[in-house]
Write a structure and sequence with these properties.
By secondary structure, the protein is α/β, with parallel strands linked by helices. The chain has six helices and 13 strands.
Amino acid sequence: MVGDVVGRPGRKVILNDLANIKKECNADFVIANLENASAGKGVTEQNLKQLLTAPIDVVTMGNHTFHQKETVNYISKYPMMLRPLNYPSEVPGKAFTVKEHKGTRIGVLNISGQAYMPDMDSPFQLTDNVIDQLNKECDILIIDFHGEATGEKQAYANCYDGRASAIVGTHTHVQTADNRVLPNGTAYITDVGMTGPQDSVIGTEKEIIIKKLRTKIPQRYRVELKYPYQFNGVLIDIDEKTGKAREIKRIFKEYENTVLEGKYKTD
Ligand SMILES: [Fe+2]
Ligand SMILES: [Fe+2]
């Protein structure tokens, strides 16, 4: 699972290095959160098509899903592209997909939290309504929980521990160090982190954010384009027979001057 891909720096990392990272990790299946891939907000169809030339099996989104106006028109053309389940049912796109890999049906669900997020229906209520059915449709269920509050993410993950193979948080753009397998076999991390520019405030030029917070005057945000860049992700090992997770490891890589000279670390 790849943490929120931000702007041109994030796209550059994905396009130049995701195939290498996949190989280094010996990963079978890649999910990437692309909610910030185009100028930090949403993803254009052109950028999506380009990013799908990298080994991405399923795309998840979040509160910025429809920030690029064209997304509402193209999202239904891409069965591997998800948006949070919390949207009203008439909204285009879907929140769940199943892809078969080496005979295993891998299901991915995208859902949003409520705490400090745009007005959204309860993720608990929504998950209660669908989780048994989703588990019938796949052997492995991975949930991208897009939320701000650590407590809400932990509560959600513990609520569905044992009913999903993995529940991973996205949205904060800061990787947490609490990756572990919960008591009933669900791999969990509060936030996968961000793939994008490191010397920034969650991907944006830091001076702009500082000015906004100091003065309260609205500012036009710009993605930081300067190096260093970073890759943030997690590698989850799941027993395909039981659907239970064995391990979840953090992956982080830094690129000083060029994406091709990244330093690779894992915990
Ligand atoms: Fe994000
Ligand atoms: Fe977000």
